[in-house]
Amino acid sequence: MRIVFATGDEALDDYVSKKDGILEVGRALYAEQLATMVPALKPDVVLFSETIPISRFDQKAGHVGAEANILKIMESIVEEGIRVVMILNERPPGHPFLERLIGLGIYDLIIGDTIKVDQVIAALHHPGTRKQVKHLLRQEEELTSEDTYRAKEIKLVTTEEEKQEGSRQISQRVYRIAKSMTDVSEKLRKKWETRGKENAPAPETTTMVQQSVVGVHKKEPETTPEKVIVLYSPEATGKTYVGVNMAIAAAKRLRVPVLYKDCTTTCKTKLWFNAPMFPFTLSDIPLTVAGRDAKPSAKVGVLIVEAAKKDDIPPGAVVYVVVDSDYARQVIISKSLDGIQPAGLIWNMAYEKACYPQDMIPLLHVLTLPYDRKAYWDIVNGIPRAFSDESLCDRLVKIIQMDPLHQYMRSGIG
Predict the structure, then answer these.
(1) In this model, does residue 103 exceed pLDDT 50?
(2) What are the backbone dihedrals phi and psi of residue 95, each rounded to the nearest 5 degrees, phi first?
(3) Angle between helix 10-17 and helix 117-125 axes, rounded to 10 deg
(4) pLDDT, tens digit, for every residue of 192-219?
């Protein structure tokens, strides 16, 4: 059984991983890391515990709470068809969090403030069923075949105390159960046909509305930042590592708003800033991280695009190819450059006696990032790393500021 551990309890992970039939394929250090780790490793089971560090902030929704983020992460795992075993704090039956988890199809719930390890191992080997967790759902009265309720306004009362204070009316209506589902379908069909005829706009009106909408879109000005930098590579050569640190350096030193567009399929850049151990948050510096569809505003001074496909390279952008020391990846990257006019080459994780990328890709060599073993393995294990070397940060800023044509003429590459 292939397992990804996400418990925040090293002793538990070590103990369980040594049991027969258990193969550890990954260990998350914070909850958000699962969003990228699980699709890549494709385990059979994810063992999750609330004791793992998790952000209470969402880029879109702001402060959302840990439970909301857990549900979002669990949904992404379940959509991959992977089973989840969850260790949770004590909650009463009918708690919304438990109901949402069960609604996602997560039935292996180990609940309690004190958990025995044997419970965890048993849950891993014996998948739970909905019947086993049904008692955790809100208990409701069973429906009968007797038609006793008529359409009327209903009052929602959650507790006895609220009944005394007065209840709030809800604009809902309850409809009695029809004797025949065919009758219901026929009535609904006729109802919507009538409503569709009543609400159908005249052809002339529709055309006028469409023309007005097109006119509005034409009037919206397209904003292009002063600097548009693209970090391109179809391979995993450390584009995020280079790009995030370039964006941070630009935001700190140039003091202009920076937009970082992650156009890769995983779009994992936001997770770097949500990681508990990462030294920067997006509230510290004038930096925004977004996906492929983001549009730069007039305030953005520098746009940095992380791209793995040619289609994601905006016109007029200064393109830098990011390579590492792997010869096979260098060959693949060199074959992908048709139709692109790169301004230079960034050699990431460079070390002596490695395959020199300019032998394969004859471009202006603008930056070399030396091989940092600790940084490399931290990133492989899902721990984001920021540059601590100030001179490297200065060189990243110079790349943004440099005139590619001037540098090309000085290099003598022809």
Answers:
(1) yes
(2) -65, 135
(3) 50
(4) 566 556 555 555 544 554 454 444 444 4
Q: Could you read off the pLDDT of 349-402 as tens digits, one per residue?
A: 887 777 788 888 888 877 888 877 777 777 666 677 776 667 777 788 888 887
Dist. CA 270–CA 249, nearest whole Å:
17
User: Is-contact 31 76, C-beta < 8 A?
Assistant: no
What's the burial of 15, exposed, middle or buried (CB within 10 Å: 0-12/13-18/19+)? middle
Task: State the burial class of residue 405 (Cβ atoms within 10 Å of its Cβ: 0-12, 13-18, 19+).
Answer: exposed
Decide: helix, strand or coil at residue 31.
helix
Query: How many other β-carbons are positioned within 10 Å of the β-carbon of residue 122?
Result: 13
- Which amino acid belongs to residue 49? S
Cα-to-chain-centroid distance, residue 150: 46
User: How distant, in Å, are the alpha carbons of 96, 345, 346, 351, 411 from that of 356?
Assistant: 57, 11, 12, 9, 17
Mean pLDDT of 292-308: 86
> Pick from 287, 284, 315: which is nearest to 301 by CA?
287
| Residue 214: partners with Cβ closer than 8 Å, 6 or more residues away | none
